[in-house]
Amino acid sequence: MNNIKENKKLYIFISCDLVNSTKLKATQGSKWFTVITQFYEQITRSLRREIENVQVFKYIGDEVVLYTEVLNKYDIVETPKKLLKIQQQINEALTTQNDTPVKLGVKITLWLAPIMTLSLENISNVSDSEKEINKYEIFEKIIENEPLYRNISTTGIISDTRNKQGNLLNGDILGEDMDTGFRISKFSHKNFITVNLLYVAVLNKLTEERNDKFKIVSLKKLKGVWGKRYYPIIWYTKDWDNINSLFDYDEYKNNDIVKNILDSCHLTEFDFLEILHQIDNETNIKTHINKISEICQNLRSEKVLPSNWTKENIKNEFAGIHDVVLNMNKKGFTPEQISKATNLSKEDINKIITTA
Q: Rounded to two decimals, what is the model's pTM?
């Protein structure tokens, strides 16, 4: 195994699953195809409008999984908020535009994963076709024989196969973070964003504060994750004081997580940091978080505008900040001074000014 190229980057993965799609197919004849096609188009369009460079990773039945490379610390902070906004918009659209009696919605799961991209192109004595057919065995040998990869159990790994646009083609990423993301998606809800513990831990480390909008709503055993220990199911929403309206009146009958929330005076009061401390000896998760934090040190910290945003996008997103930039510019402040006052990059400040 010689001349192996590797590159580790941090990615955000987003799973969007259509609620009640099975019932839709079973009861609505050929209508289901149009509804699901529109759902795919709407969710990808909404995500691409709000999150720059988001790409489709794979389709799994009625679920679409997308990803984007983390280039900015701001991405980690703001993505849950953007997804909640998108979820609310899609749910409303599915209610108003759906001409079937089936109640639809979108469940969104968010997870963070460092991905080590390995290029197998320079491995000698192995044909291209064999590399594709036996790539898992090749990866296993790499992990066994290369010291750099021996502790790869919590790191994603994918072969470096891309199309002309540079998008990852292969839908096969190995690693516990990816397994966790798909496992927790089974416990997602149409009115909350489900998030993996790693995401919350890294977010807390970046912001240095506890975010009470993320709550542990249950503990579940997940296949292939943390052995026989229970994993925290974490939901995110903006307002936990008025959540009864987010559930159907009889939902607690079929959903044990909803029942747990409604039956309790408070949600499961486990501290994220305490869970990390207790599980660390068995999972080495703190080391994993620290390694991701090291990757984050090289990320930009300014708020960055998507390159395809229009004048209206900018005004709607920044509201008061948009006016501050224009007023400071009018009064003769330099881009450096405006950047310091608004925490926007000079590039974004210039974009706001030129699109005004």
A: 0.71
